[in-house]
């Protein structure tokens, strides 16, 4: 429904002289979604984020935040946004409490409500134990948490996060991912990254950008369904040919390894196991296998894509 659309970008384009950084991107974020914006370094992700948040004017196209055109009413539109750029906009010489109170004031939170707003942001981001410490003395992981807290202190319906785990160690990355997943219960999120596990861990929908163009977008449920579309098996005594109900085609990988493509709407696993037992094929392993997000990403970003050729 239209009132569920929190961000709507149409024909978003950004040029730098003759160079096109972002070309004709359409993007929609609905209430309750976590959209993963995935792409290699230099794909145009950060440029897209800057245009969505009003920090960079597009050469062409439009952006509406909660139904408000950000070019026509930027202040009103940005009231619905929380933004964490790749480099957190924190001030090292102030305490966490001082900084969050300052940010809340910038966002127009009334003075009487600021203490509660800051406390809620700290609770959401696990910052109570460092409330009175100087931000410059915090670890990189806690500084990133402060960056997240400033993005949500005014309780916006939309949070935009640009590479939120860059420079963190594996433990900090897991903590930030868990934090993003928790925040998504009350906010819609756009998460930019070039790290596949990051998108798979928290996102409900994925969009892949390559050379400034959208080359793929789908729900993670659909991507995972693709990943379970084939069957991989290993046999001790494989036959020369398989005749099993529900199997459309068979590919031999050698050394008793095979990949089976099921007929549409069928699951031939039970039939395959039964046939193996009856015929003494010695089934050693059977698992689902398909086109993973990594395979999709690599195939679309390793060269010129069909979408780009068509556009050219």
Would you give an account of this structure?
This protein has helices at residues 45-52, 74-78, 96-106, 111-125, 140-152, 170-183, 196-202, 220-227, 269-279, 293-301, 306-311, and strands spanning 5-16, 19-30, 34-38, 60-65, 68-69, 81-84, 158-162, 188-193, 205-210, 213-219, 230-235, 247-254, 257-262, 283-289. With 312 residues, the protein is α/β, with parallel strands linked by helices. It folds into three domains: 1-80 and 157-220, P-loop containing nucleotide triphosphate hydrolases (Rossmann fold), CATH 3.40.50.300; 88-155, no CATH class; 230-289. Helix 6 links the parallel strand 7 and strand 8. It is elongated. The model is unreliable at 305-312 (pLDDT under 50).
Please give a quick description of this structure.
By secondary structure, this protein is an alpha/beta fold. It has three domains: 1-80 and 157-220, Rossmann fold, CATH 3.40.50.300; 88-155, no CATH class; 230-289.
> What integer is the average pLDDT?
89
The helix/strand class is alpha/beta
Report the biggest beta sheet as strand number plus sense, adding barrel if it closes.
6 strands, mixed
Can you tell me the CATH topology of the largest domain? Rossmann fold
Q: Beta-sheet strand percentage?
A: 25-35%
User: Biggest sheet: strands side by side, in what order?
Assistant: 6-7-8-3-9-10
CATH class of the largest domain: Alpha Beta
Query: Considering the protein shown, what is the CATH homologous superfamily of the largest domain?
Result: P-loop containing nucleotide triphosphate hydrolases
What ranges have pLDDT less than 50 throughout 5 or more consecutive residues?
A: 305-312
Number of domains: 3
User: Strand tally, please?
Assistant: 14
Q: Helix content range of the residues, please?
A: 25-40%
Based on CA inertia axes, which overall geometry fits?
A: elongated
CATH architecture of the largest domain: 3-Layer(aba) Sandwich
What is the element string, with H for helices and E for strands?
EEEHEEHEHHHEHEHEEHEEEHEHH
Tally of individual helices: 11
How far is the N terminus from the C terminus? 34 Å
Any idea what the radius of gyration is? 24 Å
């Amino acid at each position: 429904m239209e009132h569920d659309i929190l961000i709507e970008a149409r024909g978003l384009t950004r040029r730098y002289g003759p160079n096109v950084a972002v070309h004709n991107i359409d993007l929609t974020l609905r209430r309750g979604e976590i959209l993963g914006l995935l792409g290699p370094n230099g794909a145009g992700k950060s440029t897209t984020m800057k245009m969505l948040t009003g920090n960079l004017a597009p050469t062409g196209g439009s952006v509406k935040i909660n139904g408000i055109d950000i070019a026509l009413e930027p202040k009103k539109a940005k009231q619905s946004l929380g933004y964490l750029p790749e480099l957190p906009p924190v001030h090292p010489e102030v305490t966490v409490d001082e900084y969050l109170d300052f940010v809340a004031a910038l966002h127009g939170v009334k003075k009487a409500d600021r203490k509660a707003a800051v406390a809620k942001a700290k609770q959401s981001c696990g910052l109570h134990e460092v409330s009175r410490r100087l931000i410059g003395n915090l670890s990189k992981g806690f500084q990133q948490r402060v960056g997240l807290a400033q993005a949500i202190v005014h309780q916006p319906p939309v949070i935009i996060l640009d590479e939120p785990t860059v420079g963190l160690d594996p433990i900090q990355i897991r903590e930030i991912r868990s934090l993003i997943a928790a925040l998504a219960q009350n906010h819609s999120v756009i998460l930019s990254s070039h790290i596949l596990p990051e998108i798979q861990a928290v996102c409900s929908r994925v969009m892949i950008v390559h050379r400034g163009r959208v080359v793929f977008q789908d729900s993670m449920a659909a991507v995972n369904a693709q990943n379970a579309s084939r069957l991989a098996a290993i046999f001790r005594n494989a036959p020369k040919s398989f005749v099993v109900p529900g199997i459309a085609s068979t590919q031999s990988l050698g050394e008793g390894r095979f990949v089976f493509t099921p007929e549409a709407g069928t699951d031939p696993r039970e039939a395959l196991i039964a046939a193996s037992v009856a015929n003494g094929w010695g089934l050693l392993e059977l698992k689902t296998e398909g086109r993973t997000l990594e395979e999709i990403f690599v195939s679309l970003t390793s060269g010129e894509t069909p979408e780009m050729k068509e556009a050219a």
